[in-house]
Specification:
Length: about 180
């Protein structure tokens, strides 16, 4: 068993940080454009509340980064969460207060043979409470009969549960969920 450890972003390979940053930008632009026209409630009801130029000025932070080794060949597994917080936006609805919008991009990255592959990447545009942002806290990588599994706690605003993911050739997929 190999523990997955929380690490500081400055100990992550610069190339991986650059790839996450690039993917964050691409996905945020895509999500803002895709969701805004038909989105009926919440922060995107009228499009992204912060224009693209202003969004680009805000720093991208990495509040969560985990790392673990896969096998003997130097492969690695990362779980990350990248977050960009924007200035407070006034709310034009009567009786509602201003809110602080932010974007969260999270997922797994497999590193094998010098390449990085995203698995289950997800971007969420949200505000203040982060109510609709889930997350993962990976504990360990377990090898059983030649297969690799990750034991983790997953959850969101109102729930936490244990999940077992399998690391396969096409990425990481949950195989046992809702374990309490």
């Amino acid at each position: 068993m190999q523990l997955m450890r929380s690490i500081e972003p400055d100990s992550v390979p610069a190339r991986l940080i650059a790839l996450i940053r690039e993917e964050f930008e691409r996905r945020e632009r895509s999500a803002a454009l895709r969701e805004a026209p038909g989105y009926k409630e919440g922060i995107l009801a009228f499009g992204h509340p912060v224009d693209a130029a202003a969004r680009a000025k805000e720093p991208l932070r990495f509040p969560i980064f985990y790392h673990g080794r896969i096998g003997q060949d130097g492969g690695a597994l990362y779980y990350f969460q990248a977050k960009r917080v924007y200035p407070v936006v006034p709310n034009e609805k009567p009786g509602y207060s201003a809110y602080e919008p932010f974007t969260v991009f999270q997922g797994w990255v497999l590193s094998r043979d010098g390449s990085y592959d995203f698995s289950q990447p997800h971007i969420t545009l949200t505000c203040c409470s982060g109510m609709n942002v889930g997350g993962v806290e990976p504990f360990a990588i377990l090898v059983f009969k030649g297969r690799h599994f990750v034991i983790a706690e997953t959850g969101g605003w109102e729930y936490r549960e244990k999940t077992i993911f399998e690391i396969g050739s096409s990425g990481i997929e949950p195989v046992l969920e809702d374990l309490y």
